[in-house]
Structures are given as C-alpha cells and as structure tokens.
Design goal:
The protein has about 350 residues and is mainly α. Among the domains are: about 1-80; about 95-175; about 270-360. It has 20 helices and no strands. The longest helix is centred in the N-terminal third of the chain and has 24 residues, at about 1-25. It comes from Manihot esculenta (Cassava).
C-alpha cells in the first residue's frame, strides 16, 4: 500500500510540474506562481527544479528582478540546489548586460559548491568572459580539465568570441581547431570574423584553414567569403591555395579579384601550374589580357627547361581566340633557339592567321 501511495504521489508531482512548464511556456507567470505555492504546500518543491522553471521563464522574457526574487527565495527557504538556479541567473545577467552581477554570482557559486557540470561551467565562463576577467576564465578552464568535463559547442563558441575580443586571434584559431576536431561545426558568422582577424594579422594559412573547416562543414556559407579569403591568400602569397578557391568558386568571385589573382600567380606562382591557371581564369569568363601572356611567356623563357609548357600555352591560345601581340612575339622569336625555331615559327604563324581571320569578321 505504501508503495502504491508513493507511486501515486510521484505521478501527481510529475503532472503538476508538467503543468507548471506549460504555464511558464505560455507566459502565464501569475498562474505559475500560484501553482508553485501549491507545490510547496504539498511538499513537492523541496528541490530547485520547479523554482528554476519559473525563474528561467521570467529571465528569458526580460523580467530579471522577478527572476532574482525567485532565486533569493530558493536560498532563503534552504531549497536543495545543485547549482542550476545559479546557472540560470548568471546567464540571465549576461543577456541583460549585467556582467558585474554575473561575475559575482559565478564567484559565489565557486565558493559555495564543489560539484560542477558543463551547463554551470559554461554559464561561469560566459560571465567571466563578458566581464573581461581573464584570470577567472583560465581558472575555470583548468577546473574543466581537472574534472575531465569535455567542452561542448557553447563552451567553444564562448571562448572563441572572447579570445577574438581580446585580440588573441591565434588562440581563438587553436580553440576553433579543437572545436572542429571534437566534431562541432562553428557558425559561419564566427568563422568569417576569425578569418578577417587572422588575415589582418598576416596569419594567412590559419585563415585558409578556418575557411576550409567552414567550406567542408554542413553549414551554409556566405558567397562573399570566397572572395574575402582569396584576397587574404593573395596577400600571403599562398597562390596554390588561392588557385583552388578560384577554380572551385570562379562564378562567385568578381572579375577584379580574378584579375588580381591572375597577375599575382603569373608573377610568383608555381611555374608548372601557369597553364592550368590560364585555363581556369579563361573558363571563368575573364578575358586574358596581353600583359598576363607576356608575364607567363617571359617566365618560360627564363626557364628553358619548361619549353614544353610554353609550347602547350602557345598552341592552346588560338583555339580560345588569343594571339600574342607584337612585342611578345618578338621576345619569343628572339629566344626561339631555346625552344626549336621551326616549331615556334609554325605556332606563331597559326596564331597570326587566326588573329587576321578574327579581325576580318
């Protein structure tokens, strides 16, 4: 009989607590308060959960003073607490911009409790980060390590934003790397900001790594980010990586940015990839100008062992409607002994015939 009574009481407690959740979710805070009083009278509010439900609802609707009143009530009545009420109030203070209060409450929790979970640790981290208390941030992280509590998505997100705010961009990058290794996909906005900051501080390779994490993740990606990373890679002379960005996303990149990339690659890029780059930028709809051809051909002439690549480029040009101008033609003829006079003469002759045919039309 006693077991049945206990079972019935537990069922009743679950029903009333569920009803409290419904009232809170519907914004019926007066009814929620009345129901909480009834739960207290029946002895169903000996633990903090019913209070936390109401406190959280009030806090999330901006009623911070009312939420604080419930929190104080929990303490005054000696309600059994595992720290969840602290977590709710710390988060509420952070949302309201009351960072000093959030920080103080986090310190109160540390002094009062020795039991932690990821939720409360995230709340504490948020409070310390928003209050710019680096010492407390690092202490909380050490505590997570000691307790072997693995950081979650929110933990990483809080830390990356904080490290960026503190201009510790490489630390933010390493944190994002760790986040990615643990299987969490960072937000596009956070990645975009970090890419910008890393590029600004000349951490070009790290910026590309963040771009790659985002590109091959499951989240959507802003089209403008492809051009943003392209400019960063060009500035860092990471031209092989820049080539990959252009090759995969040429339709999303402006002609001006493609021209900037093409000029940089022809001057400084891997000579073995010049012809591939020419084909990609032509395929993007960009009309290759004579200056680019002259730079590429000059590099081939400076490296006679690359004669096959020069011949391939010259043979490719007519089919795409290109022909070298007179100054580049003279440069090639002047050095034709390096590449085979007869073959060079034949290729240039075909180019000239094609050029005349195009002009006649």
């Amino acid at each position: 009989l006693s077991q049945c009574s206990y079972f019935n009481l537990k069922c009743l407690q679950v029903i009333w607590t569920t009803l409290l959740k419904v009232y809170v979710k519907g914004g019926l805070f007066e009814k929620s308060r009345e129901l909480l009083l009834e739960l207290e009278a029946l002895g169903y509010a000996e633990e903090e959960m019913p209070y936390c439900l109401l406190m959280d609802g009030l806090a999330k609707t901006g009623q911070i003073n009312e939420a604080r009143s419930i929190f104080d009530e929990v303490k005054e009545k000696g309600v059994k607490s595992g720290g969840y009420s602290h977590s709710i109030m710390i988060s509420a203070y952070c949302r309201q911009g009351l960072f000093g209060e959030a920080k103080q409450l986090a310190k109160d929790f540390e002094a009062q409790y020795d039991k932690y979970d990821l939720v409360i640790l995230n709340s504490m981290l948020c409070a310390y980060c928003r209050a710019d208390d680096m010492e407390s941030v690092m202490r909380t992280l050490r505590k997570m390590d000691e307790l072997r509590i693995s950081p979650g998505y929110n933990t990483f997100h809080i830390l990356i934003k904080y490290f960026c705010k503190q201009k510790l961009y490489l630390l933010a990058y390493r944190t994002m790397e760790d986040m990615h290794r643990k299987g969490h996909q960072p937000q596009e906005e956070l990645c975009s900001s970090l890419i910008f900051y890393l590029g600004k501080t000349k951490a070009h390779a790290e910026a590309f790594s963040v771009y790659t994490m985002l590109k091959y993740g499951k989240r959507t990606m802003c089209k403008a980010l492809h051009e943003k990373i392209l400019h960063i890679l060009i500035a860092g002379q990471l031209l092989k990586e820049a080539y990959v960005v252009v090759k995969d996303n040429s339709e999303l990149i402006s002609q001006a940015a493609i021209k900037k990339f093409a000029n940089a690659f022809m001057k400084l890029g891997n000579i073995n990839m010049i012809n591939d780059v020419m084909k990609v930028i032509h395929g993007s709809g960009y009309k290759i100008d004579q200056e680019l051809f002259q730079i590429a051909i000059s590099r081939y002439i400076e490296n006679p062992e690359k004669k096959d690549l020069l011949l391939q480029l010259l043979q490719w040009m007519p089919g795409q409607g290109y022909a070298v101008d007179s100054s580049t033609r003279n440069l090639i003829l002047k050095n034709s002994h390096l590449f085979g006079r007869q073959l060079i003469a034949e290729i240039l002759s075909r180019q000239q015939m094609m050029s005349k045919a195009l002009k006649s039309h």
